[in-house]
Amino acid sequence: MKFSQYFSLFAILSILVSCSSDSEPTSETDKSGTPPALAPIPTDTYFPPISRTNEWETISMETLGWNEDQVDNLYNFLEDNNTDAFIVLKDGRMVIEKYFGDFTSDDNHAWNSAGKNLTAMLTGIAQEEEFLKITDTTSNYLGEGWSSLPSEKVLNITIENQLTMTTGLDYTVENIFCTDPNCLTYLNEPGTFWYYHNAPYTLLDDVIASATQQDFNSYFSEKIKEPIGMQGLFIKVGYNNVFYSSARSMARFGILNLNQGNWDGLSILSDQNYFNTMTNSSQNYNLAYGYLYWLNGKSSFRLPNSEDEFTGSLIPNAPADLYAGLGLNDQKLYMVPSLDLVIVRMGGASNEELLGPSSFDNEIWGLINAIIEN
């Protein structure tokens, strides 16, 4: 029997019982005839189980007081813009989980540069475990000859420069993804200019592997993936090391971030100074960039493939405290501490292929605001 049939039968029985016993209050009212108070909205953080990955507590938009009548506008926008998966969590609980076309909750998708967040947190863990210091020169772990710079120049590049996109390596080369030594040449002194140069970031994976003396995937799995119940894998695609996982795994990582590196009492990243620097302006040249995290609400920002600085907030429609993983073709992991929200979007490019932020960010947040604003 369908739920609707059960509901109808229950309603009829309730009416019959009420009519046969008018002097007794029904279960829906107290003796004064006043309906019972609604249950309070839970504000504690929910952590989905590790061993039962299909189990996830939900909460309705009605319970949250959200505007459910605005949801179709959001779904139409997502579908029109090549979306495969979309998730909204409130305090860790699933409010929206929507898949489009043939894509399902079990399917894996590339994070693209949203995966930089994973590497940033893993670097902090490696430092906490004293395998490295982010102030160390990169050459300590990559050895000689990893670039075409003379020794007096290359020794000035640190792990922190890699985390902040301030290595000074030449970003005007033909392929900014190329990690071959001949592609890594001198342009600026480290720490004096910000440019979204992918190759130095990619080499962080080799730095971590060298420092820990472990395979990068194995170290990531041990320190982040398995403890929080993620699945997925970093896969070499050309010069890039791209993480693939389900949308739910990306959402789990979002919960870990909103809890500042803690998963249900288990400390994944204990170093709060590192976490705070990672998710705040890490240098003065692009205020909207931390340690491989994009930041909203700053007075100015820079974008990939550009040397220009723009005035204002990165995503004007989004909350000022939002920080994010933003990847090629509009892979999005939005985290909003003030609202305890995690939002995941996976799919194809909404319009043009951009490496990180795009107009999609502001458009989607306009639609999200119409739902969550009371």
From TrEMBL:
Transmembrane region(s): none
Region spans: Disordered: 24-43
Keywords, ordered alphabetically: Signal
Keyword Signal assigned: yes
Superkingdom of this protein's organism: Bacteria
Domain Beta-lactamase-related stretches: 85-299
Keyword Oxidoreductase attributed: no
Span of the signal peptide: 1-23
Annotated Pfam families: Beta-lactamase
Family annotation (PANTHER family): BETA-LACTAMASE-RELATED, BETA-LACTAMASE-RELATED DOMAIN-CONTAINING PROTEIN
Name assigned to this protein: CubicO group peptidase, beta-lactamase class C family
